[in-house]
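[Automated response] Your request has been received and processed.

Submitted sequence:
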Amino acid sequence: MKKGFLAIIPLIIVIILLVLPFIVFAEKQIITVSSDSMSPTLMLGDTLVVQSIAIENVKDGEIIVFDNHDTGILAHRVFEIFEMNGKIGIDTKGDHNEESDLWSIYDEDLIGIVVDVNPSISIFLQLSVQIMLVVIMAGSGIIFARQFVDKSSLEVKQLVCIKCGHKWHPRIINGKIKYPETCANKKCRSPHWNKTPNS
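Generated structure:
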């Protein structure tokens, strides 16, 4: 397998990891709980998976996410479903609150229904994944650059092993060309790469 292809493998892994969440959470949104109005059901920092849903399919007792256009996006439990002038409305209430909310939710306010609740540790896991992706991308970039950079542009003469015929460019360390003691071919490693044993 060529080294160039090996250098591309980490990049392929990164692309898969970046695209995977969009596939897994297709038609879903991820939000984080930022208040304690639904405790102990939903705790501050919990991550919610929200599925889009038509308002006529919402049921009593379910937790919905909506925009009340005043305090912003909230996740509260369905307290009552009603119909007025042919339009479905929903009254909500936070589990931690004694009274129901002062507003009603209509189709244009509804974002979706909560279908999964992850513990707050998932935030740290997500951060770990992001850091891992950055590290993989950085490492892949370095490997890719080392494999495909035109070393001839460095004006370094290509070396050729007279024993096995392997060709390579020497490393440049601190601006100086470092000539190897043995052939760069792992299967050769001849100490006489640049001269015959009898010379």
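Summary generated for your ticket: The chain has two helices and eleven strands. The radius of gyration is 31 Å.
If you did not submit this request, please reply to this message.
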